């Protein structure tokens, strides 16, 4: 297990309840109008599969990447009826997925990038860009605020992330900030949507 995922295995049972207590539509309300109508979707850092399951319901062919075995197990149990392909893989390099050289119409990266240091973020952005189909959408959320005990997080701004994306051929379609859905003190979020430059 990499440093980026530290703390998640031990808290998987509690996190499964938290993640599933809100819906895909609630979490991603600001950008639902920017999602492709269907196609191939990749959910990186899929957790318990809440978003992957919702995308499957919307008609997407879904691949869910989750490096924490305990969270993958919850996802497979909670969403067993959904057509989701689960992969044990992770950023910054996604070695399993990279070997398949697949591209996706939608890539979701919810509360993931801020777990990576600057060098890892650069490698991750290159990998994300490589997996986006022409005209595809990369939907990303970044957490700001106090770091939970046992976790590894960095202060990553939306502006920095957009600049990094630009260096890898991606353009910003949407950027906004929002409050924390769980009301945690000092926690806020940046929501970004990126697409390959034409």
From TrEMBL:
Residues 42-136 form the Methyltransferase domain. One of its GO terms (molecular function) is methyltransferase activity. InterPro entries: Methyltransf_25 (IPR041698), SAM-dependent_MTases_sf (IPR029063). CDD domains: AdoMet_MTases (cd02440). GO terms for biological process: methylation. Keywords: Methyltransferase, S-adenosyl-L-methionine, Transferase. It holds the Pfam family Methyltransf_25. This is SAM-dependent methyltransferase.
């Amino acid at each position: 297990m990499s440093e980026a995922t530290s703390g998640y295995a031990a808290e998987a049972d509690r996190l499964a309840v938290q993640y599933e207590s809100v819906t895909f539509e609630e979490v991603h309300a600001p950008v639902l109008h920017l999602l492709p109508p269907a196609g191939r979707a990749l959910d990186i850092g899929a957790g318990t599969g809440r978003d992957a399951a919702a995308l499957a319901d919307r008609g997407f062919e879904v691949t869910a990447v989750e490096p924490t075995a305990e969270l993958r197990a919850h996802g497979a149990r909670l969403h067993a009826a959904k057509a989701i392909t689960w992969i044990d893989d992770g950023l910054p390099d996604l070695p399993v997925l990279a070997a398949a050289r697949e591209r996706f119409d939608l890539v979701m990266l919810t509360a993931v990038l801020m777990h990576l240091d600057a060098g890892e973020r650069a490698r991750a952005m290159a990998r994300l860009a490589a997996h986006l189909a022409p005209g595809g959408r990369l939907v990303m959320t970044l957490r700001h605020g106090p770091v939970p005990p046992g976790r590894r997080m960095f202060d990553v701004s939306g502006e920095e992330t957009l600049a990094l994306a630009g260096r890898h051929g991606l353009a910003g379609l949407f950027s906004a900030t929002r409050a924390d859905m769980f009301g945690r003190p000092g926690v806020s979020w940046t929501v970004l949507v990126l697409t390959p430059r034409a």
